[in-house]
Amino acid sequence: MVKMINCIDRIPETIHHILKNSETNFKELREHLKIQKNIDEIIFVASGSSFNSAFVSKGFIEKITGIKVTLIYPNNFINYTHIFNKNGLYIFISQGGGTKLVYESILKLKEMGIKSVSLTSDLDSKISCISDIKLDMGCGYEEIIFRTVGYSSSLLICYLIGLNIALVYDKIDRKGYKNYLDKIKKIPSNILEIINSTQIWYNINKKNMLENKKWIFIGADDLWGTAQEADIKVIETATYMTKSLELEEAIHGPQNGYKNDMNIFILLDKTKDLDKAKSIARFCKEEVGNCFIFGDFKLDETDFYFDSVGEEFKPLEYITPFQVLCHLLAEDLNRDITKPIYTSLTKYINKTL
Predict the structure, then answer these.
(1) What is the reported pLDDT for 103?
(2) Which residue from 310, 352, 306 is spatially nearest to 120, judged by alpha carbons?
(3) Is 178 in the same domain as 195?
(4) SS3 call for 116
């Protein structure tokens, strides 16, 4: 039986596969961009881990393209959005290609005569088939419904969407494009090291990880989106109560609810808000109790230190320890993650086609 760790172990190879096939995968989008030269907004429509992947990539895409990026959930897109930018590039993400509201969102766009881009792992899926431009997520079929290789693949494709727009719109040249890809190529081998290191860290801290079942994740910039993905992954797999917070917002009220029966994880990139992150970590460690820094800086031996090599693309590395923790927690909690807790949900509402 395939386990979550098997999907996680496939991520490095999948990154190489996506890069190898990127010229073919992005050919259709590039042709469209050459025709539609007036794009002034990039709109991602997605739910769950797909939304998080777009959220994490948002800052990079805006910086490299100079184009505003908007994120929106499908339900809001269909029912509560009233202004649609006809010069926008609309990208719909659904790993399996069967998310009901994503499908209906594309149909709504078609009625307005606006083209759509789909990102799925199945180019024969219903969503892929009704979209105007198709992108392959590159992860293939993922056996575990709580996504790991799919999330990482979606995040990488979102980065590549930004790079391809920048290339076509002459924001970067071919050499610059290649330099970015070379940075990404360093990541797979480091992910393998992080996987192994996480297992060691978990074994040391297992008692705490199993006893404290309320977890908070805190991060700044693209690590806030990464915190959101860690949040949803833990509630899906370990079924702990979780919450994710932007670094500054973590001390604008939420701190009043921090208790010593919680685990607080601070995702720390020493190039971003280091002093603030250190101060919040010290407060949580000394005044609350269980706080762990995950990243390239540590205050004490309870923190999980690892070096990242991906520079702008380091969120591909930062999510890894949390993916591994979810697998290890599920194993030790005897949680069957091949199926959801409430299979009866579809009697009340169905989110897939």
Answers:
(1) 98
(2) 352
(3) no
(4) strand
